[in-house]
Amino acid sequence: MSTHTMLGITVLAALLACASSCGVPSFLPNLSARVVGGENAVPHSWPWQISLQYLKDDTWRHTCGGTLIASNFVLTAAHCISNSRTYRVALGKNNLEVPDEEGSLFVAVDTIHVHEKWNSLLLRNDIALIKLAEHVELSDTIQVACLPEEGSLLPQDFPCYVTGWGRLWTNGPIADELQQGLQPVVDHATCSKPDWWSFRVTQNMVCAGGDGVISACNGDSGGPLNCQAENGSWEVRGIVSFGSGLGCNTQKKPTVFTRVSTYIDWINEVGTGS
């Protein structure tokens, strides 16, 4: 293929992605690095990543990640939500320790919809939708991620990236700056093997990582598994749900995500009904 036609395809991909108006960062992520336990992301290269924060002793504290999927809706994990807490959503953030970061925004929460079949014992249907108190204005630092096609699956070893402000290593410190880590998809047939996650992982979940080398130690509950679609835009394919109690980098124990493509109907119903 000549460079001329290659360039044409790249431009077309960019145009298609813009037409879809989701999943297109202004600041491109660094996808060349392969670092254990993640690395600092290019600031604002995952502009749909949010920090879910709760109020304690007059201080807002980061508790979970999440994904902006509409100008007033955030996708996160059910296990992140507690009825007794007051939440807010931080958008356009890179460093959580910098309170007035340029391009960032704190928004109050209107309502939180936890999936009616959320099972905290088996960690099933670990998904929640947060309606924001206002529509946020999209910008270079705040964008929405695309949703995958309903029912769609990714093949074994498809490269996806987990992002979050979670611990940098097992029992280690929380990250100040947003981290990213490459986590290839592990298909259900592999992930449900007896010495992997066995019956604990259902068809409504996605496994990624688990090679014992690159891990989601940096991955934060509720945050996205970011996978690039053919048109170049980024889709949120998973919501960080659970990992191994043995530690982040445990072989045959990949991070388990709620599979977003299973819940498209639910997301649309809650979104239109609230």
Largest sheet: 6 strands, antiparallel, barrel
Q: If classified by CATH, what would the architecture of the largest domain be?
A: Beta Barrel
Radius of gyration of CA atoms, rounded to a whole number: 18 Å
Q: Specify the CATH class of the largest domain.
A: Mainly Beta
Rough outline? globular
Provide the succession of SSEs: HEEEEEEEEEHEEEEH
| Topology, number of strands | 13
Mean pLDDT: 88
CATH superfamily of the largest domain: Trypsin-like serine proteases
β-sheet strand percentage: 25-35%
Distance between the termini: 49 Å
**How many domains?**
2
Low-pLDDT runs: 1-10, 12-19
Q: Which fold name fills CATH's third level, the topology of the largest domain? A: Thrombin, subunit H
Give the structure's gist in a few sentences.
With 274 residues, this protein is mostly beta strands. The protein contains three helices and 13 strands. The chain folds into two domains: 39-43 and 145-261, Beta Barrel (Thrombin, subunit H); 49-143 and 265-272, Thrombin, subunit H, CATH 2.40.10.
What does this 3D model show about the protein?
Keywords: Disulfide bond, Hydrolase, Protease, Serine protease, Signal. Residues 35-272 form the Peptidase S1 domain. One of its GO terms (cellular component) is extracellular space. GO terms for molecular function: serine-type endopeptidase activity. This protein is mostly beta strands. It starts with a helix and ends with a helix. 12% of the residues lie in helices and 30% in strands. Strand 11 (224-228) and strand 12 form a beta hairpin.
